[in-house]
Amino acid sequence: MKVMLLNKEQVKEIIPYDDPFLWVDEVENINGDFITAYKNTNESDSYFKGHFVDFPIMPGVLVVEGIAQTGTILLRQRIKDHKTKHLLAYQVRSALFYEPIFPGDRIKYKVRILKIYDDRIANFIGEAYVNDNRKCEVRFSVAIVDKEELNQKKQSILSKLPPLKIGNKIVPIPIIQGGMAVRVSLHNLAGNVAKEGAVGIIALSGMMDTNEVKEEIRKAKKIANGNGAIGINIMGVAGRFKDLLRAALEEKIDLVIQGAGFRKDTFELAEEFNVPVFAIASSAKVAKKAEEAGAKGVIIEGKDAGGHLGFPHGHEFRSTIDILKEVVEEVRIPTIAAGGVFTGEDIAQMIKVGAKGVQMATRFVATEECDAHDNFKNAYINAKKEDIVIIPSPVGLPGRVIKTPFIEKVIKKDPSIRVNPIKCKGCIGPICDKSYCILEALENARKGDLENGLVFAGANVWRINKILKVKELISELVKEANNILSKEAKSYV
Amino acid sequence: MFENNRLTKLLNIKYPIIQGGMAGVSDSSLASAVSNAGGLGVIGSGFASTSWLEEEILKTKELTDKPFGVNLLMQNPNVPELLKVIIKHKVPVVFTGGGNPLPIMPYLKQAKIKVIPVVPSSRLAQKMSQNGADAVVVEGGEGGGHIGEGSTFCLVPQARKIVDIPLIAAGGIFDSATFRAAMTLGADGVQVGTRFIATTECGVHENYKKAIVNATDEDVVVVARFTGHPIRLIKNKVVETVRKMESKNPFPEELNSERFAGGKITQENVDNIPLLCGICAGAINDIKSCQEIIEDMVKDYE
Fold first, then answer.
1. Domain A158-374+467-478: what homologous superfamily?
2. Has A373 been annotated as catalytic?
3. CB of B248 within 8 Å of any CB in chain A?
4. How do the domains of chain A map onto residue ranges?
5. Is the reported ipTM for this assembly greater than 0.90?
6. A225 — alpha (psi -120 to 50), left (phi > 0) or beta?
7. Closest A-chain CA to B254
């Protein structure tokens, strides 16, 4: 008997295989890029019993496996720190089986490394012989994967909600509290959301005074106490747009969310302060445009959102998840899912499709900390499914609202609510059709005057039945999402 | 006849006919014969060694006082050393193929050696022109050896539109009609390979020449597309072996392209060596001298 280079025990020390799935018994020789090894089959081997019942031969896949295992013994000699790597099947091509292998045959494997690409992929050609008769020839590739890298990937993607990256900042909870105008999400809501490790957003729309902007941000930051992140939401059409944005940037916010059309100067100004801009988009096309314009993230808002919807007349109302699936294929920047996200299960679903986080607004209105009047919050608690309607907004987009006496007038096109030109501040310029003053109606509502107020809300608002603390809401959402993700991770691994 | 031709003026030759550099085929004997006949002979260096090239350059200089060139295969890792020999012996013109010549261009320019890259597309022709090439060979897939995707018939007029430097058509040119056609398409001159193998002066074994004479157009085939570097050659055992391998969906690295641009082809048994040549081999039915071939090609211009 020829002296072998490695016996079975020594083979096991090199490659991480063992019975019943080790298909190499001994290595005869290793010479540069070439290895020869053996596998002894035995009539009593389990696979012969089932393959085939009436004609026991070695399954072709096992021959290929044996050749590939032999190849990895060779490859492990060639790569640095091979114990820190997994060698995984990457490709099998042109496996040819010339003759069957019978019980008791001693199989000789001959395997050659053809090329190793960048220490990532190795291409092989291998053969199996019995007594100098060629039984099988196969070409295959093996991926060389860093164990550490793979573990990190597996954990962050699968078992729980991943942290959200906003520019250079890492926020532990990937939930952005959507900015709600006018003055529904101010320092108290945004600050408390950030305090819990998520992203609190102050809505600037409707504000005219830079001092108010600065004051709100300062107060929010004080509540957050260094946790999470504080950002602002601003509409591209807002009056005094640049002054308000500059004021916010001067207060060192972490994020700018740009809705209702993105403008070049937003990106330029934010860049000056090194603050990332996330743009709101309702299609892959617009998302792509936002990326090209310089957005560092994109918020995908689908048809179930509250307030103004990004589907102008003639555009199909599409669900967040449908748009999201297209967007993640199109853009490289992080995507945030928004519109109708209500439960932890919804969050988990969006993350699985490829979102890096979610934006939620409606649920944050029904919190103790929300800056709106209790009447406004109660409208959310009391809303039934049939109370939720979509109306035309004077800015030219549809808007989702809860029915109030004021909304009845809007639907009836009551002339008494038309904008009084004397009182009009021209807040958004000529794009307003003046059918009613939405700024005044929103301001009335948030102050508690529902008679004359307009209450924006998302499609799922009817499901809300109590007011929670921000802390309770966030921990409930995170717990539910993590539960689902970890369960699926377990079933995946 | 071609006194006002831009290419003959550039290279100081009588006829705008370049003999294509062919590794293992075009050495000093063929190159000097073509130059002596009024064209430009070119030594094909392929994967040859520095000493071989130096010897061939010296021999060529002994055999002719006319200008000649050397073809450099850019895939050869030895290019820097070959370059030194070329500069040392002041070879008048260098053709490049099989890769990007821009990195070596400054050295050749400084030595006042003319650079003529061989390219497979009009875009690359334009790029070479913009980067200081003295002329450019646009080669269609009709040619032999390593080939591109386009055809001479389509590439030449397209390159002409966007390239101002002298344009040399290659691929499928072997007689007076194809020469005239290339000039009509806008070329300033032609590069001819296969026709110059079947010559009395070419140093390959008679059996290689006979294979070209005997071949029909259907005998000339393309293999090794899977490597990304397809090769045109005459059907024989080599082709059979490669085709058998191709049926198994091989990895690109299983075929070594050096095998197809090896040393001088002088062995008698030509069944086991790659007989590179263009489709025009089907129309070549005799072995002639370089002088006869060139005179026949330009006869319509007398």
1. Aldolase class I (3.20.20.70)
2. no
3. yes
4. 8-147, 158-374+467-478, 380-462
5. no
6. left
7. A114
Domains belonging to chain B, first-starting first, are 6-202+286-301 (3.20.20.70), 206-282 (no CATH)
What are the DSSP calls for A155-222, one per residue? IIIIISPPPEEETTEEESS-EEEPP-TTTTS-HHHHHHHHHTTSEEEEE-TT---HHHHHHHHHHHHH
The reply to whether A115 touches chain B by the CB within 8 Å rule is yes
Whether B249 and A96 lie within 8 Å, measured CB to CB: no
- Span B113-170, pLDDT tens digits: 999 999 999 999 999 999 999 999 999 999 999 999 999 999 999 999 999 999 999 9
The yes-or-no answer to whether A8-147 and A158-374+467-478 have a common fold is no
Has domain A8-147 been given CATH number 3.40.50.1860? no
Binary contact (A137, B248; C-beta < 8 A): yes
Contact B251 A94 (CB under 8 A): no
Residue B253 touches chain A, beta carbons under 8 Å: yes
| Stated pTM of the model | 0.60
Close Cβ partners of A316 (under 8 Å, ≥ 6 residues apart)? none
| Rounded Cα gap, residues A334 and A162, in angstroms | 12
The neighbour count for residue A51, using CB atoms within 10 Å, is 16
Residue A129 and residue A38: Cα distance in Å, rounded? 9
Of B287, B216, B221, B199, which is closest to residue B22 (Cα–Cα)?
A: B199
Instruction: For residue B154, give both structure tokens.
Output: 């389509």
More confident residue, B280 or A429: B280
CB contact under 8 A, A125 and B254: yes
- The CA distance from B255 to the nearest CA of chain A, in Å, is 10
* A2 lies within 8 A of chain B by CB: no
Query: How many helices and strands in chain A, by DSSP H and E?
Result: 16, 20
Q: Which of B226, B248, B253, B256 would you mutate first to test chain A, the one with the most A CBs within 10 A?
A: B248
Whether residue A2 is predicted with pLDDT greater than 90 in this model: the reply is no
Q: Which residue of A has its CA nearest to B247?
A: A94
Distance CA A77, CA A34 (A): 11
